[in-house]
Amino acid sequence: MALAESVRKELASIVGAGWFRDDKETLVSYSYDATPLYQSMPDGVIFPSSTEEVSAIMKVCAAHKIPVTPRGAGSNLCAGVVPLKGGMVMVMTRMNRLIEIDEENLTATFQMGLNTKQFHLAVEDTGLFYPPDPSSMIICTMGGNIALGAGGLRGLKYGTTKDYVIGLEAVLANGDILRTGGKLVKDVAGYDLTRLLVGSGGTLAILTEATVKLVPKPVYRRAMLAVYADLQSAAKTVSQIIANRITPCTLEFMDQATIQVVESFAKIGLPVEAQAILAIEQDGEEALVERDLKLIEDICRSAGAIQVKVAATPEEGMKVMEARRSALAALSRLRPTTILEDATVPRSKIADMVLEIQRIADKYNVQICTFGHAGDGNLHPTAMTDARDEEEIHRVESAFAEIFEVTIALGGTITGEHGVGHVKAPYLEWKVGSSGIDLMKRLKTAFDPEGLLNPGKLFAETRKRIVFASEAASSDAGTSGEASAKGGV
After folding, report:
1. Does 318 lie in the same domain as 418?
2. What pTM was estimated for this model as a whole?
3. 360-409 pLDDT, tens per residue?
4. Domain end: 298, 328, 358, which one?
5. Structural domain contains residue 211
């Protein structure tokens, strides 16, 4: 329902009249994220510029029991910033300041709305390096990365976002400001609240500021491409590289369907007849990189690669990696709706998982391509479909449910880096069990007793039919936040 006039005035007085919006165009614009099929209308959209403003906003919302959904760039892929219960969408992009790069302590401190790519460039200008590199880094925010525990192509060697966040500032549901950690290598004072908040998806607190650790920038980098006639040889290569105690910076996988689409898009000479390719990159001191690449090349050939090509120049290597980063954009050209999922299995099970995905796609007669981070077993089965075809969407959703079931049976998890959000809430108990769900719910209640922060995420609940933007814009009703998945699981 529409916000009371007194509440509207109170919120506008905190941020300024231009930074609180509840016109229909703005409400529709912030009713969805990058996840297909999910949309829900908020009652208002607010753009704070400081932690103090976030605190004041939360105090107003707590007093009136208004749900709040924090949001960055909206590139989320698990419906994590869709305002399922209406209320306020709090957009953090005004809070985009890089506060400090501390070269003595090898840390950086920033507000959560800072663009990820801009942060990387600023850090590298100082000769330092922040490794986590989600494929959406050109558009996503550092706050979004932290809220969902983002990974990226360099996760095998360097780890993911959770391995770098050492301090946080956050606002609790009642408006209190919480600070955790700091510029410390060691800190075991009490529970590790920093780690708890990383990956919490805005369900425990509104993250406003972070301190992350940095590492020296690698001085040399080189890439190679290994081509395979079968999936098993590619998977065997991955296991053997790791077994030989070599940790590449990047070890990426694409199946044949993905190779063909990416080559059509990028036109860099990828072998479209191959069943699988591995894109491999190493960084560090030049002599060590060259040694590792020679060893990796020998392993690739002994494991059954039919072709191995080492990039002759850094630019050639960059093209290979950029082609891999373009996989989602390339696949999205095929059909009106692209559903990118995220499942992780042990490295030794990659071939089994890809074959299972292919079997499941055939079973449900849907088109699914698979690519991902082979080095850490994080695969991205991606369905090309059409949201207007409800029967096909139902088959796609059934296929993904079976994919998640197989993933767990193989010792994996339902998400490696995208988060649970709303899309995977029905499957979370499969992974953590009923006692795990109970404990998580009690943690949620301790932080947010009224359930105001990003409600409808993590924990499964009954879902209603989606209200599409076209319907909402032509309807007088679309302000109560009714929504979920059209044909949802």
Report:
1. no
2. 0.90
3. 999 999 999 999 999 889 999 999 999 999 999 999 999 999 999 999 99
4. 328
5. yes
